[in-house]
Structure formats: C-alpha cells, structure tokens
Amino acid sequence: MSDKKMQVVFASAEAAPFVKTGGLGDVAGSLPRALVAAGADVIVMVPKYGTIASEYTDRMEHVADFYVSLGWRNEYCGLERLVIDGVTYLFIDNERYFKRDYPYGFFDDGERFAFFSKAVTESLQHLPEGFQCDVLHCNDWHTALAPVFLREFYQGLPLYERVKTVFSIHNIAFQGQYADTILNDILGMAHIPNAARQLRCDERSINYMQGALDYSDAITTVSPSYAWEIQTPEYGEGLDGILRRRSNVLSGILNGIDTDAWNPATDPMIHVNYSAADMSGKKACKAALQEELGLEVRDDRPLMVMVTRLTRQKGMDLVTYALDRILSGGVQVAVLGTGDYEEPMRYFANKYPGTCAARITFDNALSHRMYAGADMFLMPSLFEPCGLSQMIAMRYGTLPVVRETGGLRDTVAPYNQFTGEGTGFTFANFNGDEMGDAVFRGARLYWDDHAAWDHLVQNAMAADFSWVRSADEYMNLYHNLHPEIDITKPEPVVQEPEPAEPTAVEAEPAAPEATVAKAEPAPKAEQATEPADDAKAEAPAKAEEPAPKAEPAKKTAAKKTTASKTAAKKPAARKTAATKSTATKAAEKPTAKATATKPAASKAAATKSAASKTTEAKATATKATAAKTTAKKPSTASATKTAAKSTATKAAPAKAAASKTAADKPAAAAATAPKATSTKAAPKAAAAKTAPAKVSTSKATTPSAAKATAKPAAPKATAAKAAAPKAAAQDSSAATPADKPAPKAKSVSAAKRTTRKR
Ligand code: ADP
Hints:
With 758 residues, the chain is of the alpha/beta class. Helix content is 32%, strand content 15%. Strand 14, helix 15 and strand 15 form a beta-alpha-beta unit. It is globular and about 70 Å long. The structure holds adenosine-5'-diphosphate.
C-alpha cells in the first residue's frame, strides 16, 4: 500500500453554490466536501458560466490555459481556481461556450458539453502540483464523453494510464442524443470504428451517455432502487440492455443532503428556528408561511407543499387530477416551481383562494420557508433517481407523501399504523386516486392522532441523510479501482496501560451487521377518533373524506421502518468491505456490500485564491431549459441476468431514540432475500412484474427504508382514470370541472420523453 491519498477529479455541469438547476447541483456541491472529509483529495471541474456570481468569480485565480481540439476546431480553455472548504474547484473557462444567461437549453449544447468533456480530460495534465488523478468521476450526460475521449485519445500517455473512470447517472431520462454528423464534425471520432460503434444508438444518432456506460470502469446511480429499475425496459430509457450487460460494475449509492445548509435549528432563512427537541418554532413557521402565501392562517388545516420542477416526471399529472379532491377535502396546498404545469397550478390557486397557492418561480429562500412551514411534502414521481426534496422535508419535520419508486422508496419508510413506525406516507402505483388516498392517510393522522403524528415527525427528523455514509461508499468504490491506495484512516493512538496479567479474550465491538434489531413492543396504534373540534366543524374534509381504511395487515406489517443509523466501525472494515466488483471481475456475481463508516476527518483548511478576474456578474441561472437529449426506443433485451443482491437493513431508532421513550422506538429488522431476475427479450408487462421488488446492496448502515414486501412498481398512466370505485374519488375528484385542465394519459415512456430536459 502506498501512502498516497485517493485523488479524485469530479466533473459536473453544475455545482452549488455556483450554479444549480436541481439535484445534480446539490450533489456536486456537497459530495466532494464529504469525500475530502473521508480522506480524499478532490478537484471539482465545472464550466465557468457567465451566471456565476461575482462574489466567486472575483476570487478565482487563473492557473493555466491551453487549447482543446474538437474535430477541426481548436478551442481556448482556461482553468480558474477557487478553493472552498478543502475542495479545489477548477472552472473551465471558454466564453464562447459558457458565457451565457443560463446553463442549458442551447442549440449547440452537444458541442458545448463535448468541449467540456474534452477540456476536463485534457486538464488532467494541468492539475496543481502534487495532484495525480486516480479517479475521474463524471456525472450525467454533460460529462459522459470524458471516459470515451480518455480511452480513445489519451490512453497511451503515462499520466492517463492510472486514471480509472466512474460515471454516475443522476437521471437517465437525459442522455445527450445528437445527430451522428457530430461524430466527425465535433468529436473527431468517425475514423475510430470502436468509438463510432459504441456511441451510435440508431442509424442517425449518437448517444453520449451510452458511450460513458460502455467506456467507464464503474457506473453508479443515486439510489439502490434506481440502479435496479434502470435495468428494466420500463425505466431504462433504451439503455437498460447495456446496463444489464454491465450490471457487474453498476451500483446504487444513495445521495445525501447538505445537513448544514438544511438545518432547521440554524437555518437563517426560516421564520423561527426549531429542532426535534423543541418543535414550537415549526408552528410559527407554518403561520408565517400561510400568511406569506395568502393562505388561511389555521393550524387545523394540514399544509402540504411541493418544491419541484413542474414536469410529468414529478407526478404533476396525478397532482392536477387529484387536487380538487385534496383541496376541497380540507388540505391546504402550496406549490413552488417552474415547468410544463405552470398554468394548471395557477388555475387551482385561483379556484381555491386561501387554500391553494402557487409560486411560479425558482426561489431558494422561499423553498427553505416552505420546507420549514409545511406539515406534508408531496412528491408523487413517475420515476425518481434519488430525490433530495423528500430528505430535506424530513429534516424539517415535514412528512413526505411519495410514490414508491427509485430513491423515494429507499428513503421514505411508510407509516405503519400498528407499530407507529415510518417517516411518511407512500403509495405504489402511478395513480391519482392512490395518491389522494395517501394524502388523506396523512391528513387524517394529522387531524385525529396528534401523538402518532408527532412520533412520525420525530422519526423523520432522526433519519440520517448526511453524506458521510455515501462518501464512504464512494471511497470503497474508488478503492476497488485502486486497491493499492490505502483509504483507511489511521487508528487514533490509544495509550494502553501495561497489562499486569494476561488479559482475557478481548470483546470485539459488535459490528452493526451483527446487531440484532429487537422488535420492540409496538406502540399502541391510537385509534383515529374524533378530530379536534374546531377542525371537525370547519374542515369540509371531514364530511367528504371517508375515514382511512386500515391498510391490509399483510401489507403494513411487512413494511418495516428503517430509520437510519450510522454505526461507527473500525476503519479497517471499510478497506475490506466487499463492494461491487469492477470491470476486471466481470465474471463474478456482485457480492453483498458491507459499508463501513468512520469518523469524518477534519477538513483541509481552505486556502484563499488571490488573483481576481472580473467578469460580468449575473444572477445564477436557475431555470433548466430543454436541451436536446432524449429517450430512445427500448432496445431488445438480451438474455441477461440482473444482479442478485441482498439487502439487509436494520431499523434503528437513530437519534430520535435519545429523546423518546423506549416504547416509542421503532425497531425492526427486515431482510430481503436475494433477487434474481432473468429477462429475455422481456415484454414490458413481464418486466414490470419482475420489477423492483426490493433492491440491491446490503448496506448495514443505510438509512433507507427496507421494505420486505415485494411491490410491483410498474407505473401505469392511469392518472386520467376517473372511474375509481372509491367513494372518496366519486365524492370529489371524479367529476372534473369543465374548465379544469384535463390530464392526458400517456405511456410512461412517452411521458419521460416529453419531460423537460436539462
Ligand atoms: P431534481 O434534481 O430531479 O429536480 P431533486 O429532488 O433531486 O429533484 O432536487 C431538487 C432540488 O432543487 C431541491 O434542492 C429543491 O429544493 C430544489 N428546487 C426545485 N425547484 C425549486 C424552486 N422552484 N425553487 C427553489 N428550489 C427548487
């Protein structure tokens, strides 16, 4: 083992706080810091957009410039350095490509991000003294060509030989698909048959992401469930065949959130700070938010919010379908977002003044106030790679109502009325009535059972969504690619007293895996009795919404809550943890992963850049506009085996336990059996059936919800279905007002294709 640190170049088209249009910006803004804390050296490469605030551009230091060849072009590339919190940012400077008013959505995005990818690859020769790149970690289609360029153009150079590539899929709906004329004109690869073949997705197009999937040494995506889902035709957007073929190097590592930026106890953007121990401030936040949004200031109305891109991916069809029922049922709704469904949201805000509010804008500060002031957070996504908003909501004690897909399924544990376990309310199918039922399960609990509600809020706030666990998993992945680099933290030196006599056998600290999660006596499920008098008298919901049906015991009992628990392990454990095998072990079946966590290292001191370069200061562009990416025809599935993986998750009461009585602690263990699915040119329906019963990776320290139940997650475009036999549906939502925008029923794939592209 060498003493060398793991040195990682992390390339992303966005990184908070410089530029962010969604989750990718959050991830690139916080994961590198967590990697530094976990012991890596990290350089983040981001385009130097014209929209980056002058408070940053003024502090950037020019460190290098060179030319990058792109087909017949030779383009200038500057490297501007800024160091924050131990992370070095190198901004790729080319004003022709990046000095624009927003990050994406231009006719030449294919060329801009081909340039970015080539510039990143070329930059590895111009890194600061002492930085020798071990891992080039690329993210989404904007950087997907870097692994391709690296292998085709740079492989022979000694400096590049050691570079292993990791490609992370944050959203497979955006792939970067362009006319194949680009192959010669921009990529300069038409003469390389291997590259041309692996990039081509049909007779006229090439696909950047497809290239990365073939060329990268390891592939990750942002949740275990999504890692499974994208190997099915239903969710794979045409790349499922390649992903099944490369499943031996594919893993899902759950995103975390920046727990400093999102902390109700210290958040300067919210009305009153509060914490799990003292929730009084949350009531004040709710009242202030209701007032700010023009809603009736009443605590007897549950306030449900959405902070989201208003797209079909985010389940807006279900929302527009069910809003009449929800709003007339006594639930307040506020939406913050931009996108394809702005008009429907304005329509509902006009129709239900005082009960519904829509803010059609991108407003970070307001989003903080909404997470803090709401009771529930709605996220009924059609598909969701990971999703950060639901985690942020839980951190603020705002209970999520989510569809069980992708990362939503991995992070939100459904409420179990018999045990009191859970961190939110969930539903399985992409169906407006099911979503409405889940919303009212939440609302009824809010009205009828304050103790159970408060208990859920405590569970949600106790869940650990910090980056520590994920950063360790990424470190394990990097270590698999570079086993010669020691990623173990030095053991703290402990002064042992001289043993006076031979010691007895030392008791090994129990590994978290070995811990038996005891099933504690279930808290009594308090019967939903009468709502508060006031609410009962005034909330129309009471009359219209039938009492929640008890979930079938079979279903609820099987779903076990898993609050997160990061158990401290011996540092050495991480080194030996078996993570997914890499390309070199293609024949091996993926083994169960054991994740070890370790105390975060102190951050390297931030150094200040001295030189200042002035550019036009502009507000950070926040609107993601459509780029030409794409959805492809589902490819013929070859006979493949999906990885059999095992999941063993323990329910741990985590921090909540500290403040709760023992009887309140949810503790249960759920273990899912390894799953093996063999798909052979599977028709969609069949694939849907085998779809994510339970997904991969055994993460002993995962915060994810382990659900023992197998659930077909095949989404159906049933939003427009009005003939639900449920009384509730007939009551309020079956009758769609004539002037109400009618949601269209579309196939899932079609819907994804029309999703706003970044
Ligand atoms: P995605 O990346 O698919 O858009 P995520 O849930 O992963 O969804 O991340 C969305 C992030 O963007 C969250 O931090 C959320 O708060 C933020 N966000 C989305 N829309 C808005 C908005 N209109 N105003 C402020 N923040 C927003």
